[in-house]
Amino acid sequence: MTSGTKKKAAIIGSGNIGTDLLIKLLRTSTTLEAALMVGIDPQSDGLARAARLGVAVTADGIDGLLAHPVCSALDVIFDATSAKAHLVHAERLAGHRAKLVDLTPAALGPFVVPAVNLEAHRSARVVNMVTCGGQATIPIVAAVARASTTPVLWGEIVASIASKSAGPGTRANIDEFTRTTAKAIEDVGGARRGKAIIVLNPADPPVIMRDTVIAVVEGHADEGAIGASVRAMVDDVARYVPGYRMVKAPVFDRVRFAPPGEPAVDATKVTVFLEVEGAGHYLPKYAGNLDIMTSAALRTGERLVA
């Protein structure tokens, strides 16, 4: 698809996530054109980099976007700011024709995890990409759920990311991260109850993104079916996030589990360990949390306007 027939995209947010997404748009997308980069800090590296790469920029935030000549021609807008900022942006953009892909944990639109439920939400105007930890782990909970004949009583995830990869927006969203990811574990992953924890690892040199997923299945689960389902899901995610991988085969343990407020039952605990290596488009390859979020958002934006 030539640049003349590409759909036009804008990115709100010139921090780590927005800048990584910009580079992906320019380098890898055959269907979307980076038409505008929006920020609030005229000195930000993201805006400077966008300008050097020939992309139009504004440092006047949402007002600058709405006043820009390209605004009426936009087909998709990616919001890579913060949950609180997105609430304002969504209200200001309510009458706009463009699809809105939210990379913050504001959770206004339906949750989308491309490997699990993207096709079900292609007609939505506003979608939410959950969180980086959610994009990495919810596919695994969903893989366990689809291979189980009994309910997934509990889904718990721990996402560990390098502290250096967490910008101001990510740090401001910690509370929203836990709530939004836990809700998406239930709504998208299929667990009755969900819990999410994020760790900003201060190790120096920085370490790669690592995720632990625990899914508790009622009764004696079919280990073969679940293992095959998880491996297939890892392959599906890796198609749009090449650095996504399972560290070792799923671990199965027979346990007695008491769901909150309920009596204990015999259950199978499934534990899966993951790593996400970044593509190094903006921050170094340890920043897999950027890569999985921006790759998932780009895949979603492309499908929404296809």
Structure, described:
The protein is elongated. Helix 4 links the parallel strand 4 and strand 5. 36% of the residues lie in helices and 26% in strands. The longest helix is centred in the last third of the chain and has 17 residues, at 288-304. The protein folds into 2 domains: 3-130 and 293-304, 3-Layer(aba) Sandwich (Rossmann fold); 132-286, 2-Layer Sandwich (Dihydrodipicolinate Reductase, domain 2), CATH 3.30.360. The mean pLDDT is 96. It has helices spanning 16-28, 45-52, 61-67, 83-92, 114-117, 132-146, 168-172, 174-187, 223-238, 288-304, and strands at residues 7-12, 32-38, 56-58, 76-79, 99-102, 126-128, 152-162, 191-201, 209-218, 244-246, 251-257, 265-276. The protein contains 10 helices and 12 strands. By secondary structure, the protein is of the alpha/beta class. The chain has a 6-stranded parallel β-sheet, sandwiched between helices. Strands 7, 8, 9, 10, 11 and 12 form a 6-stranded mixed β-sheet that branches.
List the helices and strands and how they pair.
Blueprint (H helix, E strand, L loop, with lengths): L6 E6 L3 H13 L3 E7 L6 H8 L3 E3 L2 H7 L8 E4 L3 H10 L6 E4 L11 H4 L8 E3 L3 H15 L5 E11 L5 H5 L1 H14 L3 E11 L7 E10 L4 H16 L5 E3 L4 E7 L7 E12 L11 H17 L2
Helix pairs in contact: 1-2, 1-10, 6-8, 6-9, 6-10
Sum up the structure in keywords.
6-stranded parallel β-sheet, 12 strands, alpha/beta, 36% helix, Rossmann fold, 6-stranded mixed β-sheet, 10 helices, single chain, 306 residues, 2 domains, 26% strand
